[in-house]
Design goal:
The complex is a heterodimer.
Chain A: E1 3-7, E2 11-12, E3 18-25, E4 34-40, E5 47-53, E6 58-60, E7 68-73, E8 78-83, E9 92-99, E10 105-108, E11 112-116
Chain B: E1 4-7, E2 10-13, E3 19-29, E4 34-39, E5 46-50, E6 54-55, E7 63-76, E8 86-92, E9 98-100, E10 104-108
Parallel strand pairs in B: 2-10
Antiparallel strand pairs in B: 1-3, 3-7, 4-5, 4-8, 5-6, 8-9, 8-10
Classes of the chains: A mainly beta, B mainly beta.
């Protein structure tokens, strides 16, 4: 079955760039679907960051757009998130997910905690 | 920007009871693009309902979704112990393309 797995540093310094990768198994990204990133600060709700198609077409949350880049590497069957100029407010669990029917996130990774601290 | 407001913030019920969770949008949402998720502590969200009323794969039929326009409802007909969790609604549409509600915590009374 389709599985997603996030990876990346768990600790990032303020003003630096957060970089995460989502490896997809059980499905070829090149075959279709959009893929997305969602985050959840400790004890808070879900915030959509952005989504990407296998062709590289992207759409981002306007509140984060100036700092976000999402890219896809079909040869490695993975997609990535870069968030620049991070602050403590960017501390969160970061999830990757597949955008399925009716633009609902139908398959999620387990999430990875990223803390922004010096 | 479409804002989703979920109510109540916390719902206290007993196993076997019926749960009704509300999601109200600040602007009309296409019924095709309203989803519901369940999240348990330490776990990723799980898709329950998409398209306002379609159950996702493997979701028990005690979960049902309804609504249109600006008012949507998730109903759990008979609560099981494993249903106590936080529930989020989510819409896809105008900018920002995707928004989530703030969540409803369903706790055991």
């Amino acid at each position: 079955q389709v599985q997603l797995q996030e990876s990346g540093p768990g600790l990032v310094k303020p003003s630096e760039t957060l970089s995460l990768t989502c490896a997809v198994s059980g499905y070829s990204i090149s075959s279709g679907y959009y893929w997305g990133w969602i985050r959840q600060p400790p004890g808070k709700g879900l915030e959509w960051i952005g989504s990407i198609y296998h062709s590289g077409s992207t759409y981002y949350n306007p509140s984060l757009k100036s700092r976000v880049t999402i890219s896809v590497d079909t040869s490695k069957n993975q997609f990535s998130l870069k968030l620049s100029s991070v602050t403590a407010a960017d501390t969160a669990v970061y999830y990757c997910a597949r955008v399925g029917l009716k633009n609902a996130f139908d398959i999620w990774g387990q999430g990875t905690m990223v803390t922004v601290s010096s | 920007e479409i804002v989703l407001t979920q109510s109540p913030g916390t719902l206290s019920l007993s196993p076997g009871e019926r749960a009704t969770l509300s999601c109200r949008a600040s602007q009309s949402v296409s019924s095709s693009y309203l989803a519901w998720y369940q999240q348990k502590p330490g776990q990723a969200p799980r898709l329950l309902i998409y398209g306002a009323s379609s159950r996702a794969t493997g979701i028990p039929d005690r979960f049902s979704g309804s609504g249109s326009g600006t008012d949507f409802t998730l109903t759990i007909s008979r609560l099981e112990p494993e249903d106590f969790a936080v529930y989020y609604c989510q819409q896809y549409g105008s900018s920002p393309r995707v928004t989530f509600g703030q969540g409803t915590k369903l706790e055991i009374k």
